[in-house]
Amino acid sequence: MLHEYRDIITELKVSNARFASIFDKHNDLDQKIIDAEEGRSHLDHIRIEEMKREKLRLKDEAYAMILEYKKEKEL
Domain locations in the chain? Predict the structure, then answer.
């Protein structure tokens, strides 16, 4: 997720518990989606789509936090 911000992500995961939680939830959902799509777990199409929407919401939230962090560091 957002590989171009790897250094900032590393810093935020350590310094911001909310960001760390979002990041972990995103990665967990990503793995569950992959497992379902590759047949390692059984989820219906509707549930997979719900998980994809939640994963995107988490990514958007994390991205907003990254941008805020960058903005604060530039000041």
Answer: 3-74
